[in-house]
Amino acid sequence: MMPKKNVDWSKVAAHRDAPPATSEASARRTDETPASQAPTPETPRPKRARREPKFPASYRMPADVLDMVDAAVEAAADNGVKLSKEDAVAAAIRDAYGHLL
Q1: Which of 1, 66, 78, 99 is least crowded, fewest Cβ atoms below 10 Å from its Cβ?
Q2: DSSP H or E stretch at residue 15
Q3: For 28-79, how does the pLDDT look when each residue is reduced to its tens digit (9 = 90+)?
Q4: Rounded Cα–Cα distance for residues 52 and 41 (Å)
């Protein structure tokens, strides 16, 4: 069994509270450090793609326009194409104003 070593805790506490000693040589060394040895900043981790919530579209349109949208949806259904009202409105807007982009 090894004998216990007596530790002078006052010296340990004094050493811990003292600021680290810096000499001119060590200060010069840090200034002369090449950029290749400089620590690189952490790159942020890629975040998971969040799913954007989809809210129902709400439009205030005249009754005749609503009738046209319903007719477009029914005509597409007759041709075997599933077209929602929102898709019909988007297609009509693209057709009318697509040349502006």
Answers
A1: 1
A2: helix 9-17
A3: 555 555 555 666 677 777 778 888 887 776 778 899 999 999 999 999 999 9
A4: 31
Q: Which two tokens stand for residue 9?
A: 């805790």
Q: Decide if 77 contacts 87 (C-beta within 8 A).
A: no
Every domain of the chain and the residues it spans: 63-100
Residue 64: what residue type? D
- Cβ(54)–Cβ(84) under 8 Å? no
What are the structure tokens assigned to 93, written together? 């807007």
Distance between CA atoms of 25 and 57, rounded to whole angstroms? 69
The pTM assigned to this predicted structure is 0.43
